[in-house]
Amino acid sequence: MSFSSAKVEQGRRGTSFFNSRWVQAPDGVEELDPAQLAPGFRAGGAHCGLKEGGKTDVGLVVCDAENVVSSILLTRNASSAAPVRVCRDRCERGAIRAAVVNSGNANAETGEKGYADAVAMCDEAAAQLGLRPELVAVAETGVIGVPLPIETVLGGISGATANLSTSGGVAFSDAIVTTDRWPKRCTLRAGAVTLSAQAKGGGMIQPNMATMLCFVQTDAVVGDPDAALRAATDASFERITVDGQMSTNDTVLLQATGSSGAPLPEGLLEAVLLQLAIEVVADGEGSSRVGRVQVDGAASAVEAERVARAIANSPLVKTALFGRDPNWGRIAQAAGMALAGEDLEEIGAEAIDAAELAEDVAEAEIGIRLDRGEHRAHVWFSDLGYEYVRINAEYTT
Amino acid sequence: MSFSSAKVEQGRRGTSFFNSRWVQAPDGVEELDPAQLAPGFRAGGAHCGLKEGGKTDVGLVVCDAENVVSSILLTRNASSAAPVRVCRDRCERGAIRAAVVNSGNANAETGEKGYADAVAMCDEAAAQLGLRPELVAVAETGVIGVPLPIETVLGGISGATANLSTSGGVAFSDAIVTTDRWPKRCTLRAGAVTLSAQAKGGGMIQPNMATMLCFVQTDAVVGDPDAALRAATDASFERITVDGQMSTNDTVLLQATGSSGAPLPEGLLEAVLLQLAIEVVADGEGSSRVGRVQVDGAASAVEAERVARAIANSPLVKTALFGRDPNWGRIAQAAGMALAGEDLEEIGAEAIDAAELAEDVAEAEIGIRLDRGEHRAHVWFSDLGYEYVRINAEYTT
Predict the structure, then answer these.
(1) Cα torsion for A66, A71, A72, A73, to the nearest 10°?
(2) Which residues, including other chains, have CB under 8 Å from residue A272's CB and lie 6 or more apart?
(3) Residue B211: active-site member
(4) Which of A77, A333, A342 sits opposite B205 (nearest CB)?
(5) Pairing between strand A365-371 and A290-297?
(6) In A, which residues are within 8 Å of B145 by CB distance?
């Protein structure tokens, strides 16, 4: 057995934040130190012991402006983790002032104690910050099914509160990562507006760990934060797949103070979330290449989506991406499965552009295209290689 | 990286045909030499060059009785291979006398030439056998997207015709296999009835090859062959998954002469197809263990099915099966994904019996169970290990 093709990218592929060929940043965007949060926000982190080696595993981000507007998106998984349920049940979603997070334990499938623990985290953070608990979101990521050592975590929240700082972006980012190979964060200035963001990924679900978290802070004026976050998420996090597995803990939080007096530059939030989403795929479990499949035509939008997802989640297409195999037959097969029962003309080789699958170059971003009608959809996806098996089979509980 | 857990079963696990813990054969079934076909049938095979090393790659099975009844089930993949389309368009499904097969080339995604080639195979077999072409089914398996060397195949059909024999079951079985690690065939006697069957698998789709084929011959009286085959297939081939990929070439053919004067013993066809189906999973690409997930309760049959499939096709559950990890959190996560948007109570550990996932014993058949309502469904599935990646990534086109 050879591992020659298992070239895993060990870091980001450029020095610029916007390094994906698929992301178009708005003109005039300036990159700042990612430690520096958008004006009006402070963050901090601490180590309480959920992760080994003294790593930061508890964090807080807080908006000092009372008139913040916010939007929060939560996983729809019916096995949602306790923090997701607590946010859903208790948070004033449009006015979230702070978020308390931990990594190393997802607090998922932990029953009534888990729910009470997530409530206790909100309550503790609220008390430390002098806020009503309904204004504090909670997000957790890590092992599923293991009770949270709540006293330890509450101690960590005190520690994180003690080092809250306007330059706490890196500490907060460190507090949410689990197996990420590189951090996913930025602070950007565009005209009068500053936006900072921190994400973590690894897969829809990590080896015993769950998931995708993303936090965005800005001083822009955001009139309809739900619409803005929904639209930007639809075009980014909702269009990626590592292993097709919806997680128990996915959470995306946008907070905007409006203190700059200026609106979000058009396309900025979309570009930031898309870059972060593509990095989540690039840093998927054992992933070495990112594919983007585009179905350029289909009978309906629903059909285009179904075909694109079938291709992106096919283990045969994913291993072909890993093995640099321009195997358009597998793409046709997956598309045909998504269209089962229809009596189609063959999707011939001429309709499928799979050539990039075989490109054995430094290029880790591979586009494939399928053209068969009017409607469009596209999905970014990772390859499937030995590392995915190793991470998910050998880290036994 | 360690491969200690990648113990691949290199052969069948018993000397008896019915060797799965999940298959209950009817009482009084006697196993005969699988070369010996059911009375009234002859089969033969030849090497024409589609496979290397002189292996048998063309085959014929023919019923000498004019009053045969038959049923044929074909893949619903919208990218169906040419032979599937030809069977759909031309065959008199209830009266199929013969089937002509080849392995080494799926004749899928091969356009108009491919269709004409499959027609030519039927016509040649019909001419050789003195039958109308509408009474001859065609099935092919192997590489997708490669034109068939039709003259070579037609020559092979002549060769197979020349050695047609009542003891041609093994030759015919050899003619349909591709990467199978062991043959999947039997001849059984139950009372007055004899039934012979040959199948091939490897995955829903093979490395560049497609698929699952199964042929069944019997002298039993089968009043409604469509109903009999549909019911037995629903409980067997329709309940398995290797990689969730519906193939382009799946074909199951039942032929019954009625010459024994006796009906099929209750449960015989079901038991044979289930044993063959489980062997297809056991011999899946790189598979080392077979799981059976049973959702013992759900709000509806549709929901039970969706949850069972979500678990069986989760790469996280499959790698856990490979790694002997009793990871019930991944089962809860996959079930929750299948129930997305519902507001459920947690599916706690107590509802999930995943203990067998961890059994590090010779037992290659692993049962897991999820209990949460009224309705039931179950699916057999393979694990996902290094061999799957190797087979599908390293055999580049």
Answers:
(1) 180
(2) A186, A188, A195, A197, A216, A232
(3) yes
(4) A333
(5) parallel
(6) 328-329, 332, 349
The pLDDT assigned to B209 comes to 39
The residue type of A175 is A
Amino acid at A364: A
Residue of chain B minimizing CA distance to A322: B393
The reported pLDDT for the residue numbered B382 is 75
- Distance CA(A20)–CA(A162), nearest Å, equals 37
Instruction: Find which of B5, B7, B76, B77 to mutate to test the A interface (most A CBs within 10 Å of its CB).
Output: B77
CATH superfamily of A29-282: L-amino peptidase D-ALA esterase/amidase (3.60.70.12)
Give pLDDT tens digits for B38-55.
Answer: 999 999 999 999 999 999
Domains A29-282 and A290-394 share a fold: no
- Per domain, the residue ranges of chain A are 29-282, 290-394
By residue count, chain B amounts to: 397
Choosing from B187, B211, B241, B257, the catalytic residue is B211
Torsion of the alpha carbons at A193, A44, A231 and A284, rounded to the nearest 10? 120
Out of A243, A319, A333, closest to residue B79 by CB: A333
The CATH number assigned to the domain with range A290-394 reads 3.10.20.340
**What's at A181, amino acid-wise?**
R
The per-residue pLDDT for B154 is: 98
DSSP A257-303: --TT-SBPPTTHHHHHHHHHHHHHHHTSTT---EEEEEEEE-SSHHH
